Amino acid sequence: MTRIFSGVKPTGHLTLGNYLGAVRQWAKVDQHRADALFCIVDLHALTVEHDPGRVCRLSRQATTLLLAAGLEPAQCTVFVQSHVDEHARLSYLLECVATDGEMRRMIQYKEKSARERAHGGSVRLSLLTYPVLMAADILAYGADEVPVGDDQRQHVELTRDLAVRFNQRYGHTFVTPRATHPVVAARVMDLQEPTSKMGKSHDAGAGIVYLLDEPDVVRKKIMRAVTDSGQEVEYDREAKPGISNLLEILAACTDGEPEKLGGAYTSYGALKKDTADAVVEVLRPLQERHRELVADPAYVDGVLKEGAERARGMARPTVDAAYRAIGL
Ligand code: ADP
Questions:
Q1: CA–CA distance from 37 to each of 79, 88, 129, 175 (Å)?
Q2: Domains in the chain: ranges and CATH
Q3: Whole-number pLDDT of residue 34
């Protein structure tokens, strides 16, 4: 059976981008067609300035949201990265296979390190080595597929390179995974700044819809979304990034196609209203289920405990084999 691995970082509250670009696909499709692992990658949340108490709370919230979004523990494995030591164990071995030049070429590293420096901060070494830990996350489980949004494409490529290199040097140990991307909404953009992605780690802004935003907040954010010059509602990512983003969100929420939906509107206002309605409808059941789960902390604890045990059982043989192969 195909094995898939994907994750979410508890660096902030989950956004509509996380949901449409990743989590929805995990819940609706991936968990039913494969042996799937979904991980709250809390070690990755330590690569930038963080508040120790908050990471733990956000991990918990992310877990609850994934379950609320429809992940079923009977169908897939949901767990927290730091509960399974194999990730850190394997990461170190892969650091001995990767090069610093490779790390410095990663687009996300360049962007995030520049942002840290611009704010007068120092750049943690773990920000540079982050893609190696991500490779360990994936390779430890022998994952065949990694469903991710566009922003993670380069990191999955690196994971493939490291797997191939390790196997060539030390004997076949790892499965070489491949990334899969959703057809629609692989890159949901910020509503106020439609040329940059809607990211939970960015400063809380009017351009980000969070999964737990109340319906009136969602509506306000979408109605105030930046639009483009001109009047025509058409899907053109280059010339009309704001409108195209709204069309993409609407299409993802209604199982439509952004190109076709464009033709149905004669005003920006009508498109915004329908997009807001569609998003509110998509979030409603998720928010209801989230409320129920928050009231049942023992259930969430149980899911995480069982998930970690299952994940450990899968990762340990592969990581042990990697230690033997490399000569330890
Ligand atoms: P973030 O940038 O919000 O911290 P994560 O690294 O936790 O995102 O990513 C979790 C999943 O959500 C990944 O598969 C990522 O590709 C996807 N994702 C994140 N932001 C977006 C977005 N704006 N549009 C589409 N997918 C996204």
A1: 8, 17, 22, 15
A2: 3-181+296-326 (3.40.50.620), 215-291 (1.10.240.10)
A3: 96
